[in-house]
# Entry
Amino acid sequence: MDNNNLIVAGALVLAFLLYRSLSQRKAPASLVQAKLAAGALVLDVRTPGEFSSGSYPKARNIPLDSLASRLGDLPKDRAIVVYCASGARSAQAAKLLKKAGFAEVVNAGGLDSMPR
# Structure
């Protein structure tokens, strides 16, 4: 294999690993529904503007960019269902919450993935 092929192969592997680490898969709808039925806190990590244009009933809005500084506002003894617009920010939020010691965190994906 020449150097160009090695560079391309390395870049593809790096891109795959980066994508995989940033895109935590969203939970199955049945799990999201079960957590909601059990009283999970619903956390919307979109911007306040996005939140004001429509949100899931009883959702709490803490934008992703301020979540790290507001972890103390969230209960660690309650399940948390996180969503955003497409699932990318909620995946990042779920990862951050889990690293901070929140045991029951479910990434629901985008608002359109939330049960109705």
In short: The CA atoms of residues 15 and 38 lie 38 Å apart. The first helix runs from residue 3 to 22. The helical segments are 3-22, 29-37, 48-52, 64-67, 88-99. The chain is about 45% helix and 15% strand.
